[in-house]
Amino acid sequence: MRIETLNLSKIYGATKAVDDVSVSLGDEVQVLALIGPSGGGKSTFLRLLGGLEVPTAGAVKIDGSPLPRDEDALREVRRKNGFLFQSFNLFPHLTALENIVLPLVEVYGRSRAEATGRAGEVVERFRLTDHVKKQPGQLSGGQQQRIALARAMAHDPALLLLDEPTSALDPEMKAEVLDLIAELCESGQQIVLSTHEMGFAKRSADHVVFLAEGKCVEDASSATLFENPETAMVSAFLQKVMKW
Amino acid sequence: MKLFLSLTVSILLGATFCFVFWVVASHDYQWSAIAPYWKNFLNGWTTTLLISAAALVLSILIGALLTSGQLSPHRVPRWLSRAFVEIIRGTPLLTQILIGYYLIADTIGWDSRFGVGLVILSCFSAAYLAEIFRGGIESIPKSQWLSARAIGFSEFQTYRHVIIPQAIRRVLPASAGQFANLIKDSSLLFVISVHEFTMQARETNANTYATFESYLPLILGYFILTFPISLLSRHLEKRFAYEN
After folding, report:
1. Pick from B146, B153, B165: CB nearest A93
2. Which of A49, B94, B109, B114 has the highest CB neighbour count under 10 A?
3. What is the pLDDT of residues A6-21, one digit of tens each?
4. Sign (positive/negative) of CA torsion A49, A50, A51, A52?
5. What SS3 class is residue A23?
6. How many CB atoms lie within 10 A of CB B11?
7. Beta pairing class for A31-35 and A191-194
8. Number of structural domains, chain A?
9. In this structure, which CATH number among 1.10.510.10, 1.10.287.70, 3.40.50.1000, 1.10.3720.10 belongs to the domain B37-239?
10. Which range marks the domain in which residue A33 is found?
11. Interface pTM (ipTM) of the complex?
């Protein structure tokens, strides 16, 4: 995937969530990880790339074409992508299966039978078949995240955007969700994820962007950034978080 | 402490029930005095049932309209809806009925007491429902909106499939209370001579001077109307229930 940002900024009131970020990634990047301290702009940057937010200034280009700014056109962009957030993103009043089927029917215009068949395939691939009749409140956090990931993958998204997908989970559940994401990485899915899991970013990502205080401090291939960070800030951060 | 509270509540309420029942039961009733008027009571009760049922439907429609006005991104509908709700909720129903019938309806030449009464009662109840609906919709977490946007739902689809189904569960108890109020409030329509249940009791009393005998049937008559609403609301709460 080719992702370019040009002087990209997003300002909320007095807060510069993303501040003048320009990066350029080529086709060799299949999995991009966004890392850095909390509140550094990872989430906002990811949402800008996915068309969930409109930049205050600057632009995003995906595969050469700039993202539109008006809501209707942006919705079309979002429909081509799949999103997963930290937590609470399933609809609690619907069963797990219906959470996957509803968007296929309503957004992608599939028939109910077709959508149910497709949902069945995805939950089988994600080993969730036993849980499809339950409502989210009856599932563990890890199962909820896996169902949400199944929903994000059901329409074969061009780009899968994961916003700290395991931050709200305990270690065992983290592992089961990360396993699944690693599988998707290996299958060739284009992924952008923001994460605090440095081990995972190091192993699975091709490229890493380090964001702090809204600025891009460093962007490099995963091997380079983790082995030979250029800046003192990234090196200090990595030492701190990799220590334990 | 729990035992103490349970005991206190049981004793206080038990004693109150016994005392009231004893007073009411030991009165020397002259039921023969009001017997000739039974048909008037039945007609009045039917009128109350009809006007309440119609006002219930109409107030839901007007209430939904006012809610959408208050949630509108535009200022004018927001202010107008707000003004309507505040004025109706801040003034006595009795005054609204008098002004509505003798001033407004008279000016446009509409003299159906039943019709005017129905509209005023519906508007009154709608103002309360609008606040209940708005509260319900605003209580749905922002993460649900984000999730729906990420899936590619339009605003309409988000309301229809995500927000309203969850809000219904939350507004049911308060709405049921408001519907019971609506039935009881219809008794004020006597001021414009709508021949509803309470009006018939007043007339019977005026003709027979049998005060208790005239008014006691109201207790049973109104309770028969309000109790099923309470039962239905509980049933629906269970049907729309989901774990959070």
Report:
1. B165
2. A49
3. 999 999 998 999 999 9
4. negative
5. strand
6. 10
7. parallel
8. 1
9. 1.10.3720.10
10. 3-242
11. 0.89
